[in-house]
Design goal:
Helices cover 23% and strands 42% of the residues. The chain contains 5 helices and 16 strands. The protein has a 7-stranded antiparallel beta sheet with strand order 9-10-11-15-14-13-12, sandwiched between helices. It has a 5-stranded antiparallel beta sheet with strand order 3-2-1-4-5, with no helix packed on it. A hairpin with a 2-residue loop joins strand 10 and strand 11. The N and C termini lie far apart (104 Å).
Length: 294
């Protein structure tokens, strides 16, 4: 009888030990050094608290000029704030290989902080495409985003005047035309309303244009009119890459190369002595200065 009782007691003890071990596996796990039960509970609460989840990184859109690859993982884009380095996102290698230098691109990127210096950010591209294919991006050149009228500053004999101009569009660009001028979008030509012999022809240049070659072309054209002079400083059009002029008793011609957000244009201005000519040049310069890429 005593032997039977000892067997029953040993069996019950073994069952109890197994039960305690099972409970300890989930409820009584060893704590990390320096931690306690309260710390573990706080960690679990923090993980479930939406306020402690990582913040979403905002995306930023822009349009700029692709300047080439810096290395296999990054490229340079001329933005409205100057040249910036961008890290390529996944799957962008093929597009970058097809891009030509100075191509106009639309891009979307995220700013990631650089560990150790909060003032520095790594710009990571999430989207990249040719600007002509972009839809709805910032700076995409959609005329619906442009106001129908704009006030231009016209300088006449050293005096600045504010005049209202109307939005006009052509193939690949838009501009604001003052009321003393007429614009023919099909011929890319501005003329003086009072005298059509006063005109300016607009030519949109390819991305790979060569300024030196254009200079030679301009000098050859203008040499038939008179002595070719290069205008600089206040005499030249604002931000002109090249501004040449030639004058004789019967006519005056100007050949201007200007870049607008990385897109090159030629402006060829022709004037003749007339009552309207004094007002034509200031008006046409202000109008040409208003060009926006499309």
């Amino acid at each position: 009888m005593k032997k039977t009782n000892r067997i029953v007691l040993m069996t019950a003890t073994a069952v109890l030990a197994v039960s305690l071990a099972a409970c300890g596996g989930s409820a009584n796990q060893p704590l990390a050094p320096g931690s306690n039960v309260a710390d573990n509970q706080n960690n679990q609460n923090n993980q479930n608290d939406p306020g402690n989840q990582p913040e979403e990184v905002p995306t930023i859109e822009g349009v700029g000029i692709y300047k080439g690859q810096i290395d296999n993982n990054s490229i340079e884009i001329e933005t409205e704030n100057g040249p910036e380095a961008f890290r390529l996102g996944e799957g962008m290698d093929e597009l970058v290989n097809e891009l030509e230098d100075d191509a106009r691109v639309a891009y979307t990127y995220e700013e990631h902080p650089i560990e150790g210096d909060d003032s520095l950010k790594q710009l990571v591209l999430t989207k990249l495409e040719l600007a002509d294919d972009a839809t709805g991006g910032a700076g995409s050149g959609d005329t619906s985003e442009l106001p129908a009228t704009k006030t231009l500053t016209v300088t006449v004999e050293g005096v600045e005047e504010e005049r209202e101009a109307q939005l006009e569009t052509a193939e690949g660009y838009a501009l604001y035309v003052l009321d003393v001028l007429d614009f023919d979008a099909a011929e890319n030509k501005l003329t003086m309303s009072a005298d059509e012999s006063l005109q300016a022809i607009i030519t949109k240049l390819p991305s790979d244009y060569n300024t030196d070659e254009l200079r030679l072309e301009a000098e050859e054209k203008l040499a038939g009119i008179g002595n070719v002079e290069e205008l600089e400083g206040d005499q030249a059009m604002t931000d002109a890459v090249l501004h040449l002029s030639a004058v004789n008793e019967e006519q005056a011609s100007q050949y201007i190369v200007k870049e607008v957000d990385g897109q090159g244009y030629i402006f060829e201005i022709e004037t003749v002595p007339s009552e309207a000519s004094e007002g034509f040049e200031p008006a046409v310069h202000a109008t040409l200065d208003s060009i926006v890429n499309q």
